[in-house]
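#onboarding

Welcome to the new folks! Below is a worked example of what a typical request in this channel looks like: someone posts a single protein sequence, and someone else replies with the predicted structure as tokens. Don't worry about understanding the tokens yet, we'll cover that in week two.

Example request:
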Amino acid sequence: MKELKVWTINGFVGLLIMLCLIGVATYSLLSGWIAVGVVSILVAVTIIASFTVVQPNQALALTFFGKYMGSIRKSGFWVTVPFSIQKKVSLRVRNFNSAKLKVNDIEGNPVEIAAVVVFRVTDSAKALFEVDNYEMFVEIQSETALRHVASKYPYDRFEGEGYSLRGNSEEVANELNIELQKRLVVAGVEVMETRLTHLAYATEIASAMLQRQQASAIISAREKIVEGAVTMVQMAVSRIESEGFVQLDEERKAVMINNLLVAIVSDRSAQPVINTGSVY
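Example response:
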């Protein structure tokens, strides 16, 4: 199926023609021209059956004895195929908010995920005649595509490189858009935008995963602290030796490095011990 353009005439022109035919029929019947009067009445009735109104951002698909004749997209008052069955299709932009789905990511962890899909109908013939209910088709295919894409990535990357659902939501949404467009082209629907609206670990593992994230953050912070502490100690020792404040042998240098590292890396403030000499 593919959308076709059906022939139309301005409805007000058709209304004028119909009034003229009614006048001709009346005059013919009064003058005794029965055949002309009957034909005029039949044509006028046919025109009456051809009137239709199309609202803005709406398509009207026409079928005549089971055959698709075409669609009207332009809004207004029209005369078209008489005695045809007319089906309306909205061309407005619409949103579909999926329910919160529980899926397993690529690592097998249960994840709750939801998305919003912005779409519109671009082919009225496909939307009406290729699928039973295009709105229901959009809903089911959106949730199916969301499950498929979510199962290809981990929720988060604790080590290594690559995409994750939490860290690359923009890229995941773009892939969902492409995947969904492939599925909905048969229904004459264009996917304009997709966005993740909800992403979280499932309740049964949320606590454990939070502890894992916290542990990962603590390890990363400790690595930065140790790296900075080593750099600061190297600078301190080098400056003391270069400016000749004191002469340090290897044993004293090791003690000073140990004390500096402990003071910098420790979570608590250092408590200095002052040597005031012996008291007798």
